[in-house]
UniProtKB/TrEMBL annotation:
GO molecular function: betaine-aldehyde dehydrogenase (NAD+) activity; choline dehydrogenase activity; flavin adenine dinucleotide binding
Domain Glucose-methanol-choline oxidoreductase N-terminal: 82-105, 254-268
Organism, scientific name: Roseibium aggregatum (strain ATCC 25650 / DSM 13394 / JCM 20685 / NBRC 16684 / NCIMB 2208 / IAM 12614 / B1) (Stappia aggregata)
Function: Involved in the biosynthesis of the osmoprotectant glycine betaine. Catalyzes the oxidation of choline to betaine aldehyde and betaine aldehyde to glycine betaine at the same rate.
Biased composition regions of type Basic and acidic residues, renumbered to the chain: 543-552
Descriptive protein name: Oxygen-dependent choline dehydrogenase
Family affiliation: Belongs to the GMC oxidoreductase family.
Binding site for FAD: 6-35, 84, 92-95, 219
PANTHER family linked: CHOLINE DEHYDROGENASE, MITOCHONDRIAL (PTHR11552:SF147), GLUCOSE-METHANOL-CHOLINE GMC OXIDOREDUCTASE (PTHR11552)
Catalytic activity: betaine aldehyde + NAD(+) + H2O = glycine betaine + NADH + 2 H(+); choline + A = betaine aldehyde + AH2
Length: 552
């Protein structure tokens, strides 16, 4: 391998793969991707229904956890991050959500000029190949295939109908004009396989010849000369090596590892770097700050009919599903089983949804660690815009040391009120006529958990991360002291260096983060290549006409 490239991309995750594809479209560009993880071959990653396995496997996951969270009774929450080609898109739940139009307008208001909804919509269209989405609002020729489930289980429709019965609207495509309402959920699955960023972008681009991928390469730091990034230092096979970038180095190592690499390279809060014995190249106090996530609860209800996925929660059934998938890429193995969903507002006066639901015809933890004893169904529910903020710090100057991750989950009083509202609204939905043929007892929280105090106790003990950390290299105006990158993803204070991944989000989006992370990769590519951004859209998203006076 030559050690001279035009562009070096650190991390083959959601954003990194999209950039590898776009930057290598011009055969004149020599592009290197360095990825610490390895291959994604095998059913544990490729079979959608196996999603709970890779997120627990040291082979595919960095194995991070939060510090004891002070507002959650000192619980440490798992913070899985993909360590494999495709990054977290290879170990995630495959749910596909762009986010709400207002999220991006908020980004723009926060200083990310050029990232309003009208600017990002054309990039969403460019990335997508939508099957079944709303015409005119969705992409049809992009590398990223997005589809809906077969809705094989009647509970999927029961959830949607229950929402309608409770007085909420229905949306035909929450990734189209209207996010708000109950509807079918979308997934990055194509022809029965997980459609990760590696399958969609990286593998086709690797056929081009001007793109080099090195797996098993741990990037230790960015090489900086006279405040200009000139390459990276990485370790592979026990050897420390260097690669040089004639044009730019781009970090896309995730919201945990991008700030970590910046700090290891001397870019970050000066006092913290000094504490770690690292020479300061650029004092950027925002590096590692502004950490955000979504929390969720699994609200579980027993099912009186033996129709849920519980009947397949045994070795024989799993083997049969696996065999059907292996030979035909069909059947239950070909879905993530999140096939219906909702985005609703918690109260009148909230302009756009601030609560998301994933519905599952099974009562089980997301990570597959514990299933209820019998048939049940559940909603994953949580608020979308918590004001709690955390931070990432180094624990050592050793690039192999795990960082310290503190989310400060539930540190705002509103977080508690919001979660209690989530529980009460969910009980109302599960109490509708549509669930009458199926509804058994409430498994969790349980009928006895009603008072604010009891609900708070339940929330403290049971709330889990939805695995959406972001915001730790926040994008903003160049003169914003806490911004890390400018609106063209350039690291402020160092030339030739960009960050483009979920770490640059100024604020978390309304939904799961794979789609917006890929969008960041798509849009950043145009900035890196010096292209004129795609023309802004003039499509206006749907906002509930009575949002000021009505909750639904
Ligand atoms: C278990 C789980 C479930 C999720 N479920 C969903 C879901 O259903 N839908 C959804 O939209 N989102 C989901 N998410 C979130 C979503 O997948 C991520 O937010 C998104 O993939 C982040 O993209 P990224 O480009 O920022 O980073 P990543 O995709 O994490 O990519 C970072 C890459 O950089 C590599 N890397 C890091 N450090 C180094 C280093 N020092 N040297 C070399 N390589 C390095 C990593 O190995 C990784 O491949 C989930 C996430 C997880 C973990």
């Amino acid at each position: 391998m030559s050690d001279q490239f035009d562009f070096i991309i650190v991390g083959a995750g959601s954003a990194g793969c999209a950039m590898a594809y776009r930057l290598s479209e011009d055969p004149g560009n020599r592009v290197l991707v360095l990825e610490f993880g390895g291959t994604d071959v095998g059913p544990l990653i490729q079979m959608p229904a196996a999603l709970s396995y890779p997120m627990n496997m040291p082979l595919y996951d960095w194995g991070y956890a939060s510090e004891p969270e002070p507002h959650l009774g000192g619980r440490r929450l798992a913070t899985p991050r993909g360590k494999v080609i495709g990054g977290s898109s290879s170990i995630n739940g495959m749910v596909y959500v762009r986010g709400h139009a207002c999220d991006f307008d908020t980004w723009e208001e926060m200083g990310a000029s050029g990232w309003g909804y009208r600017h990002v919509l054309p990039y969403y269209k460019r990335q997508e190949h939508s099957h079944g989405g709303q015409e005119g609002w969705r992409g049809s020729e992009g590398p990223l295939h997005v589809q809906r489930g077969t809705k094989w289980n009647p509970l999927f429709d029961a959830f949607k109908t229950a929402g309608e019965q409770a007085g909420y609207g229905v949306t035909a495509d929450y990734n189209g004009e209207r996010q708000e309402g109950f509807g079918d959920m979308e997934m990055t699955v194509h022809r029965g396989r997980r459609w990760s960023a590696a399958n969609a972008y990286l593998k086709p681009a690797l056929k081009r010849g001007n793109l080099t991928l090195v797996k098993g390469a741990l990037v230790r730091r960015v090489l900086i000369e006279d405040k200009r990034a000139v390459g990276v230092e990485f370790e592979t096979g026990g050897e420390i090596r260097e690669a040089k970038a004639a044009r730019e180095v781009i970090l896309s190592a995730s919201s945990i590892n991008s700030p970590k690499i910046l700090m290891q390279s001397g870019i970050g809060p000066a006092a913290h770097l000094a504490e770690m014995g690292i020479d300061v190249v650029a004092d950027r106090p925002g590096v590692g700050a502004n950490l955000q996530d979504h929390l969720e609860l699994y609200l579980q209800q027993a099912c009186t009919q033996p129709i849920t996925l519980y009947k397949h929660w045994n070795l024989l059934s799993k083997a049969m599903i696996g065999a059907q998938w292996l030979f035909l890429k069909q059947g239950l193995g070909a879905s993530n089983q999140f096939e219906s969903c909702a985005f609703i507002r918690s109260k009148a006066g909230v302009k756009y949804p601030d609560i998301q639901y994933h519905f599952l015809p099974f009562a089980v933890r997301y990570d597959g660690q514990a299933a209820a004893e019998g048939h049940g169904f559940q909603a994953h529910v949580g608020p979308m815009r918590s004001k709690s903020r955390g931070r990432i710090k180094l624990t050592s100057s050793d690039p192999k040391a795990k960082p310290s991750i503190l989310f400060n989950y539930m540190s705002h009083d509103e977080d508690w009120e919001d979660f209690r509202t989530c529980i009460r609204l969910t009980r109302e939905i599960f109490g509708q006529e549509a669930f009458a043929p199926y509804r058994g007892k409430e498994i969790q929280p349980g009928d006895n958990v009603q008072s604010n105090e009891d609900l708070n106790d339940f929330i403290r003990e049971h709330v889990e991360s939805a695995y959406h950390p972001c915001g730790t290299c926040r994008m903003g105006a160049k003169d914003d002291a806490m911004a890390v990158v400018d609106p063209e993803c350039r690291v402020i204070g160092v030339d030739g260096l960009r960050v483009a991944d979920s770490s640059i989000f100024p604020q978390i989006t309304n939904g799961n983060l794979n789609a917006p992370s890929i969008m960041v990769g798509e849009k950043a590519s145009d900035h890196i290549l010096g292209k004129t951004p795609l023309p802004a859209s003039n499509q206006e998203p749907w906002i509930h006409p009575d949002w000021e006076t009505s909750q639904r």
